[in-house]
């Protein structure tokens, strides 16, 4: 075991390397590119016994990933943002093939307008596809998440592909100390993939992913994939327990930070959750009973564990770094589906922020906690509050003044 | 699988590998070509399918295939073939798969996918030198949705989206492939089974990207009685509209030179999709234009 | 509400029949729903269409499970379970079969509790059979006037030209007139009552193993279990005295792999799967294959 400084992308690549993957279909996109570049270098140098093939699009990349997994190989791939969207047809399709592989998504905000900076709208748009989703807050979690994801995805009770998500820039390009486990220990935790009879072989005829006619077979196949995803709740817990036993790091499906006696909890996914922890510590110092609850596992949705973590709280402040236009934040709605109809659940107080790489200041966390407590006291849940300041709007107004300025003599059609 | 070399009609397979009972239309020229191809290629194959008529060849729980089949999407069948080829290669290289378990990756796609949405994935697969066979059944339109115009719809043909006849030229997929310098490319038609079988045998003996472009007379989309499927296919060849040829070792060779060429009007008049060229008034200008293009092609061939 | 289902094959005007009946109801002042339902959208394959009509806005949707009347344009479909002709037939359901046999014969053969009528043989099985069924249905409900039916057929068929319109009008009106003695035989069905209903037997779906619970088929060539022979209206019959044992023409060119050639070069047609495209008849050099109507054969067998 060794400890070294790795970016999130470096940790993702190490995860693939330690998983001893056979095949990496690849396509570059910022801020993911470093992952496949690293793997290409290792494959070329013989440090990894995998084949890396550059495809011409993410749509093709995910097709190749699913097809290779259907042929029995352990497959790793990675993408981000627009690439995930471009692949979206195949994201849904390959999940229905019931083939396990792992794809790291480096979260980046979606066009339009096109930008390079992060938020989570990209990965959450894939939440209905049938991929498992593991969301990471640190570079260590990225590497460990890849290993756990293979174990869960390949489990005979599951057999679904998995996304391991890391935030662009805040994790992808940020170095942190990461423990690299011993390859032998990883091999014991994650034995070679055995596809069983579900692999294309000359001795074994198989027509796969065939068309169906009618709602009864369609409903059956789709719902079976759902049941497999639900089964992944227990399989994840087993894998996380085994991982903790082997490597000493514990990654439960739902992280609870100083939340047991909290009245108000922050609820969020991804890298900024560590900022929320910092805010929790400061608020505790100020005498506030505040905590954090963070679902690491987003698909399957650990609803029972979330209820257990949130029961008896006064308010849960959901900080959505995504936007479902015309509705608000996705996590707030997802959490409502888990809590509604159960007794003793807290009020959901929704916030939308950190879109396209915008920061969340410590003071904003403090104010969120205050507003959540006030809403609970008033007994009225407010609509989503956008984290956006007067200063920011003033800055945008300056940009607009330039963009829309009348410039006499400069030509144009007006 | 036929191991013998096919020299004459008598060597053509007399029993068939592709299962009966598929949902293709009666008289489907595409299925005719595919079953002839399958008879030669055999079951040590995995057919990677793009969305089109033939997606319904395998409809749960029925499949006509004896080897593998994987439905992918309309745009990425070639990438599916890439994934399977790469996976089998890497597993064999690592000693985890005996070589006798190997399969040939075959893309099966219609013209809608091949000339349009799937072209990017296919072009890249050829460029990567992927060892695969690409079979396009070309019925010159989006047949599975009721025959709308595709990049393969020929000049003059009426489709659901070109009610007064296609004004654009058919794209030359064969030449697009040849421009990529593939290992092999050939045009075939089910109505000429010996020519087809010889080409499939040759393709089978070569590694790398290989195209089999099969013109697929389509009773439903081209509007003719199913029993005329072979006659229409033969006319496509005899008029010179569909040249039978192959690209091998860097050269294009015509495997059948129609002499004398039957006038294109015989081919056009046999199909409902060209009826507006004959009634209510005969469009001699357009018929002449189609004939002139065929004549120019064969003049250039020499 | 009236709930009426039409069954036939692609090419028999089943969708148009439903539209003609729907329009006739509409012209009579009814609220109407009409829709076709295809499986694999293939010529010759079984399809059905349905019409709902009521004096009040229609909330019900989807396939008709409890029909008041079922009209069958192609009698060969009646015994085909996959065609679903007999689905939901109750004592009060009127079944109409385009057939030369009597309704009573059909009733006994199928052991049906309800009334069965036959349509005149002129219309049975052909491309006008659907329209004849529409005319029959219009008369059987007893609330559609002859001139409304005529106007509806004009509206639906008029765009196809005078000759086609005349043939369809004649078919619809002939059936309408022929069923005059049965006017009003089809009555409006009642809605499903909320009191005393039979609850659905919902289950918890078991979680099955992944490969089994995926749309995968492990067995080879299972499509042979799909008897596409039911699509056939004409049967190719080989005159073995004239067959010159060429060994390949019909067997290779049959699009459906439905003709195998024995070791002694004798071709055998697989009638379970032959779709009746008649390509074999068209290509046989010594003209040793003849077409026999399936209906005539069925009658001869009686």
Model description:
The complex is a heterotrimer of chains A (414), B (302) and C (302). Chain A has 414 residues and is α/β, with parallel strands linked by helices. Chain A folds into two domains: 236 residues, Thiamin diphosphate (ThDP)-binding fold, Pyr/PP domains (Rossmann fold); 140 residues, Rossmann fold (3-Layer(aba) Sandwich), CATH 3.40.50.920. Chain A has 14 helices and 16 strands. In chain A, the strands form four sheets. A six-stranded mixed beta sheet of chain A has the order 10-12-11-14-15-16, with helices on both faces. The model of chain A has no long low-confidence stretch (mean pLDDT 96). The radius of gyration of chain B is 19 Å and the shape is globular. Chain B has 302 residues and is of the alpha/beta class. The longest helix of chain B is centred in the C-terminal third of the chain and has 18 residues. Chain B has one domain: Thiamin diphosphate (ThDP)-binding fold, Pyr/PP domains (Rossmann fold, 3-Layer(aba) Sandwich). Chain C has two domains: 181 residues, Pyruvate-ferredoxin Oxidoreductase, domain 3 (3-Layer(aba) Sandwich), CATH 3.40.920.10; 68 residues, Alpha-Beta Plaits (2-Layer Sandwich), CATH 3.30.70.20. Helices cover 27% and strands 18% of the residues of chain C. In chain C, the strands form three sheets. Chain C has a six-stranded mixed beta sheet. Chains in contact: A-B, A-C, B-C. Strand 9 of chain A pairs parallel with strand 2 of chain B, so a sheet runs across the interface.
Largest sheet of chain A: 6 strands, mixed
Low-confidence stretches of chain A: none
CATH structural class of the largest domain in chain A: Alpha Beta
What CATH calls the topology of the largest domain in chain A is: Rossmann fold
* CATH evolutionary superfamily of the largest domain in chain A: Thiamin diphosphate (ThDP)-binding fold, Pyr/PP domains
**Helix and strand string of chain A, N-terminal first?**
EHEHEHEHHEHEHEEHEHEEHEEHEHEHEH
User: How many structurally independent domains of chain A?
Assistant: 2
Rg of chain A, Cα atoms, Å: 22 Å
**Considering DSSP H and I runs of 4 or more, what fraction of the residues of chain C is helical?**
25-40%
CATH class of the largest domain in chain C: Alpha Beta
